[in-house]
């Protein structure tokens, strides 16, 4: 199978499977979702950290050699700052109304003759959030495709490990995205269809990166460093703060176990591949 075929296969497969898994997850009983989702987030955290620190960064350093390692450090720092800015622009992750409005919770309006207007305004905001989710998620998935392509162009096995890591963090995010689309007034069928379409936009990013990076091989190690920075940013800035909201010792132990399980899956996958 050609390298481009590997990239198309895994970007399409990752996007489609994450969207289908998220849809199936939403159909599960609420009690089951509450129990399973924290473990899924913990596992994704470990997989992202493992892929960044055990796979992408070592290959990036190997690609430039020890004499140019500072360039990889600069690329890593630039990537972290880039994703901070993108998140501030509400393009990196999905935007809940509470986040967009400074974590101010929605307070039900009492009806003093204007209840209809308040209700309509709330529906309009929910619809706007749904549209923003589709735009932001499409951009996010195109970027994921670029990262996966960069990994595949370095080593097919690294590409597979990177695609697995992307998939593990996409599933919890897709669950949240679907919930917002449904809250925005979409039917289940329409929400699933649009979410799946945005999920497979990663194929566009993968193909574009393949042709660009093929003409600029010297950029490849730095692309890997930026890929690592995105995984580190998601894990440290987005996922771990959510895990810290559970402060009881039992939850902490379970989180650590599932984080280590995520790291172990990446480590074993990468080790077997080499």
TrEMBL record:
The keyword Ribonucleoprotein belongs to this UniProt entry's keyword annotation: no
GO MF annotation terms: metal ion transmembrane transporter activity
Keywords: Membrane, Transmembrane, Transmembrane helix
Highest taxon, organism lineage: Bacteria
UniProt keyword Membrane, yes or no: yes
Ranges annotated as spanning the membrane: 6-28, 40-57, 69-86, 192-213, 219-240, 252-273
Bilayer disposition of the protein: Multi-pass membrane protein
Compartments in which it is found: Membrane
A Pfam family it matches: Zip
Coiled-coil regions, chain positions: none
InterPro entries per record: ZIP
An example Gene Ontology CC term for this record: membrane
Identification of the protein by name: Zinc and cadmium transporter
High-level lineage: Bacteria, Pseudomonadati, Pseudomonadota, Gammaproteobacteria, Steroidobacterales
């Amino acid at each position: 199978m050609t390298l481009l075929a590997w990239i198309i296969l895994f970007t399409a497969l990752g996007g489609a499977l994450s969207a289908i898994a998220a849809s199936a997850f939403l159909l599960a009983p609420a009690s089951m979702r509450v129990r399973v989702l924290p473990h899924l987030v913990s596992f994704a955290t470990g997989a992202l950290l493992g892929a960044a620190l055990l796979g992408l960064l070592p290959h990036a350093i190997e690609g430039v050699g020890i004499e140019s390692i500072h360039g990889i450090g600069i690329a890593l720092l630039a990537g972290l700052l880039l994703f901070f800015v993108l998140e501030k622009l509400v393009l990196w992750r999905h935007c809940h109304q509470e986040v967009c409005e400074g974590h101010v919770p929605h307070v039900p309006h009492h009806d003093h003759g204007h209840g209809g207007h308040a209700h309509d305004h709330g529906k309009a905001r929910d619809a706007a959030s749904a549209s923003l989710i589709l735009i932001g998620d499409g951009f996010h998935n195109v970027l994921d495709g670029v990262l996966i392509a960069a990994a595949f162009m370095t080593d097919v096995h690294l590409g597979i490990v990177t695609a697995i890591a992307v998939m593990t963090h996409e599933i919890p995010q897709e669950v949240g995205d679907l919930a917002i689309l449904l809250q925005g007034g979409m039917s289940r069928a329409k929400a699933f269809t649009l979410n799946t379409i945005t999920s497979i936009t990663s194929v566009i990013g993968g193909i574009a990166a393949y042709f660009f990076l093929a003409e600029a091989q010297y950029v490849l190690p730095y692309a890997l460093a930026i890929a690592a920075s995105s995984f580190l940013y998601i894990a440290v800035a987005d996922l771990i703060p959510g895990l810290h909201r559970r402060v009881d010792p039992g939850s902490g132990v379970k989180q650590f176990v599932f984080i280590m399980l995520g790291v172990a899956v990446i480590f074993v996958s990468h080790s077997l591949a080499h």
